[in-house]
Amino acid sequence: MNPFNANYFVGYVNHVSPQYVKVHFPSSTLLNKHIFSGEEFNGGLIGNFVTIEGENLGFIGRIAELDLPEKERLSLSEKAFQSSDFHPTAKVEILLSFDYFDSSNAQKTLSSFPNIGSKVYICPSKFIQKYVINFGEKDKQNGLLINLGHLTSNKDTQVKISQQAMFSRHCAIVGTTGGGKSWTVAKLIEGMIKNHTKTILIDPTGEYSTLTQSSNTDTESAVLGSEASFSYHKLTTEDLFFLVKPSGRIQAPKLQEAIRSLKCVQSNIKNISYFSDFVTERGNLKKDGMDVIKFERFCYEHPELDDNHLNFDIKALERQITYECVYNNGTTYGNQSPNDLSYCVSLITRIGNMRKTKILQSVLGLDKDQERNDLTKIIDDFLMPTQKDKLLLRIGFEKIGFEYQAREIVANAIGTYLLDKSRKNEFRHFPIVLILDEAHQFLNNKVVDEYFETSTLSAFDQIAKECRKYGLFLCIATQMPKDIPIGTLSQMGTFIVHRLINYNDKEAIKQACSSADLDLLSFLPMLGSGEAILTGVDFPMPLILKIDEPEIPPDSKTPVFSNIRSYKEMSGKVL
């Protein structure tokens, strides 16, 4: 198709800069709506695409600004609009260049620019369609596309995104409440299911439960606290520290020693004759009178004790801390030290409270309820290449409360578990996508206490920084990009940005997204529901599109106010 048909002509280039060009319209009538070859054209609308006829290359641009010369503004009136002709100008952002003889060969980086006097045309939808129908695909990589929506400037121009370009450098979906973020997540999941790509979704609110409640047999759900639990044995020592928050001077070393002692019991230290008398019937190691050097030698000879996981009976931890509060003269452990024990009383209390908190008992498997499945086993079974019929695993957090920062710690533990599997190259041949909804709840979370040193839950940050080459791709969705660490956000290669109003949120996107210039960001506060800016390092140009409704929408509707009096009359109930 010829994009330089005279019927599409609107003006001439009269100013060129590295970021944009200015266009002079010889007549304002050229910007009026008209129909040609069955297609409706609106040349004078912000956001419309134009083509520019350069000397050696053609260019595609987007109208970012319209203006009238100063002298013509002074004569504006209703009568003048009816009888006079004006000469508007436009600021056009250059998006890409293309070869005249092979228009499919588009280049994102500009090696040349239009000349002064170059002709400018309205871009027909069929011409722009071929750039967005396989958007981001390079050399027919694998043919996996996701039908995401259509251009806001033309409803007939469908946008099909390369799945490889979308996720291979990680992806961020951002936008304020009601902007359409949840629909976008559901639409991407829908596309990946059709492409037979395994996806794990961490769902904090349960709004995506509709995706797994359908008749689809390729999805499954694991709701933590009711259907599944993440065994505390798979937590790390750092996770336990986050949960109980030991102070640094006395409590942290005693907790570390207690963990090591319980691991010694788990390693059958009682089978060694010297140590057998120090192991109690309740599974503790009572150190009073024990030889320090022999004990340290045993620990040195058993490197498995340095395993970072909590492979011991956590019910014995409180008593073990008490047994750790003893004197140590360098050769023999002595009697109980009252000072050390008094320092550790608050720690012992916190561990006891943690173990007895109902929500943690169900989420971490502390109550050993046999009806709940182990989440790590569910994940392992889901990720098996032989399980080709299971494509989406939704991990629901809707039953988890906010005590002890359990949500953040369990989510971080899941991230750590997948991070360890990726480092073992388990995803290199069968890449997976990990979607983290409401990511601001889990990223940049610091566990803070009056005496506990501040630490950051960093599993997802590590995934963003190193797991692309391992085949574990991260997709985060958040209402507040300003709360995402800039180091994590800068690792996102693709951005789908819905309406943003807050200045700090827009600045966070601006800093992380190289192609998000001021002209593009100026559209953010005005985007309607479901509209978004798509930009990324693997895409030839940024697009403004409308996300299509997913086949199975998430449960994200806002409750509607109702007349409670009429409800009482209809129900016949007293509220």
Give a verbal description of the structure.
InterPro entries: HerA-like (IPR008571), HerA_C (IPR033186), HerA_central (IPR002789), P-loop_NTPase (IPR027417). Residues 146-261 form the Helicase HerA central domain. Residues 432-538 form the Helicase HerA-like C-terminal domain. It holds the Pfam family DUF87. The chain is elongated and about 105 Å long. The chain has 20 helices and 26 strands. The protein has 575 residues and is an alpha/beta fold. The strands form 6 sheets. An 11-stranded mixed β-sheet has the order 11-10-26-25-24-12-23-20-13-19-14. A 6-stranded antiparallel β-barrel has the order 1-2-7-6-5-9.
Strand and helix layout:
Blueprint: E1 9-16, E2 20-24, E3 34-36, E4 39-41, E5 49-53, E6 57-67, H1 70-73, H2 78-83, E7 89-99, E8 106-107, E9 119-122, H3 125-132, E10 145-151, E11 154-162, H4 163-167, E12 171-174, H5 181-194, E13 199-203, H6 209-213, E14 219-223, E15 228-229, H7 237-244, H8 251-266, H9 273-276, H10 292-301, H11 317-324, E16 326-328, E17 333-336, H12 338-356, H13 358-363, E18 373-374, H14 375-383, E19 392-396, H15 406-423, E20 432-436, E21 446-447, E22 455-456, H16 459-466, E23 472-478, H17 486-489, E24 494-497, H18 503-512, H19 518-521, E25 531-536, E26 543-547, H20 564-571
Parallel strand pairs: 12-23, 12-24, 13-19, 13-20, 14-19, 15-18, 20-23
Antiparallel strand pairs: 1-2, 1-9, 2-7, 3-4, 5-6, 5-9, 6-7, 7-8, 10-11, 10-26, 16-17, 21-22, 24-25, 25-26
Helix pairs in contact: 8-11, 11-12, 15-16
